C-alpha cells in the first residue's frame, strides 16, 4: 500500500530529494529527474552541485549494479537517458559564465566505444570554464580526430574510453599524430573510468584526468604554460 503512494518531489527536503533522485535515475525516470533538477535549482543549488551530488552520484550506483549483474543494458540505457535529460537542463547554466574564450578543445569517444556521458560532462564543464568545445561524438576512428583538430585549429584534444578493449585505441591516435609530425601542436588529455595516470603516460598523453573538474584545471594549467612559453619566445 505504502509504496503505491505517489511521492511529491517538491515536498521532500534536500537530502531526501537527492536520495529519491538516485532511485529515480536508477529506475530511468526521465521526467522525475528533470523535475528534481529544477526543484534543486529553484532552491538555490549551484548547477555543479546538482550535477555531482544528484546525477553523477546516482550514476555511480547504477554503475556498481551493472558491474555486479543486477542491472542490464536496457535498464542502464534508460538511466543514461534520464541522466542526459537532467544534464540538458544544467548545460546552459554551467556554460553561462561569459568568460572570454581561453582555448579550443576537440573531444570524442574512441572507435568501438559508444559511452558518451562522461565525455559530454567534460565538454559541458570545459564550456563553463570558457573553452570552446567541438564534440565529435562517439566511435571515432583516428581519421576523425585528425581531421577535426586540423579543421578546428584546436589547442586541446580530449579522448574518452570506458572499455578496457577500446582504451588502447588512444595510443593509435597519438602515434598517428606523431607520424604526421603534429603531436606537439596539441595538448592531449585522456579520461574514462578504466584509465589511470600510468596508462596516460604510457600512451604519450599529456595528462590523464580523473573527472571533469580535474580536466578543466589541467586544461587551464597547460594553456597558461603554453602562453608563457610563447611569451618567452
Ligand atoms: C552508462 C553505461 C553504459 C550505457 C552508455 C550510455 C551512454 N550514452 O553513454 C550503455 C548501456 C549503452 C552501455 C553499454 C556497454 N557497456 Co557500459 N557502462 C555504463 C556505466 C554504468 C556508466 C558510465 C557513465 O556514464 N558514467 C558516468 C560518467 C559521468 O563517468 P565517466 O564516464 O567515468 O566520466 C568521467 C571520468 O571518467 C572523466 N572522463 C570521461 N571521459 C573523459 C574524457 C576526457 C578527455 C577527460 C579529460 C576526462 C574524461 O570525466 C568524466 C566526468 O567526471 C559504466 C560503469 C562505470 N563504472 O563506468 C559501464 C561500463 C563502462 N560498461 C561496460 C560494458 C561492459 C558495456 C558493454 C560492453 C555491455 C554489453 N555487454 O553490451 C556495452 C559497450 C557498448 C560500446 N561498444 O561502447 C563495463 C566496461 C568493463 C570493461 N572493463 O571494459 C562498465 C565498466 C560496467 C561494468 N563494470 O561492467 N554502458
UniProtKB/TrEMBL annotation:
SMART domains: B12-binding_2. The keyword Metal-binding applies. InterPro entries: Cbl-bd_cap, Cobalamin-bd, Cobalamin-bd_sf, Met_Synthase/Corrinoid, Meth_synthase_dom. PROSITE patterns: B12_BINDING, B12_BINDING_NTER. Pfam families: B12-binding (PF02310), B12-binding_2 (PF02607). Residues 8-102 form the B12-binding N-terminal domain. Keywords: Cobalt, Metal-binding. Residues 102-233 form the B12-binding domain. Gene3D superfamilies: Cobalamin-binding domain, Methionine synthase domain. PANTHER family: METHIONINE SYNTHASE. This is B12-binding domain-containing protein.
Amino acid at each position: 500500500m505504502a509504496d503505491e503512494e505517489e511521492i511529491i518531489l517538491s515536498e521532500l527536503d534536500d537530502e531526501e530529494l537527492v536520495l529519491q533522485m538516485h532511485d529515480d535515475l536508477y529506475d530511468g525516470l526521465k521526467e522525475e529527474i528533470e523535475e528534481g533538477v529544477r526543484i534543486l535549482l529553484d532552491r538555490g543549488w549551484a548547477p555543479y552541485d546538482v550535477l555531482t551530488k544528484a546525477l553523477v552520484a546516482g550514476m555511480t550506483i547504477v554503475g556498481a549494479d551493472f558491474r555486479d549483474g543486477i542491472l542490464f543494458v536496457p535498464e542502464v540505457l534508460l538511466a543514461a537517458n534520464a541522466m542526459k535529460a537532467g544534464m540538458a537542463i544544467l548545460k546552459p547554466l554551467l556554460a553561462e559564465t561569459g568568460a572570454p574564450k581561453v582555448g579550443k578543445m576537440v573531444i570524442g569517444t574512441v572507435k568501438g566505444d559508444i559511452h558518451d556521458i562522461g565525455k559530454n560532462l567534460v565538454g559541458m564543464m570545459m564550456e563553463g570554464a570558457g573553452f570552446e568545445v567541438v564534440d565529435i561524438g562517439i566511435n571515432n576512428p583516428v581519421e576523425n580526430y585528425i581531421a577535426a583538430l586540423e579543421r578546428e585549429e584546436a589547442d586541446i584534444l580530449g579522448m574518452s574510453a570506458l572499455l578496457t578493449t577500446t582504451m588502447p585505441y588512444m595510443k593509435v591516435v597519438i602515434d598517428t599524430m606523431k607520424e604526421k609530425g603534429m603531436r606537439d601542436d596539441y595538448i592531449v588529455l585522456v579520461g574514462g573510468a578504466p584509465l589511470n595516470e600510468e596508462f596516460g603516460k604510457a600512451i604519450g598523453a599529456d595528462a590523464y584526468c580523473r573527472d571533469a573538474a580535474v580536466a578543466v584545471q589541467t586544461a587551464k594549467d597547460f594553456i597558461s604554460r603554453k602562453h608563457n612559453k610563447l611569451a618567452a619566445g
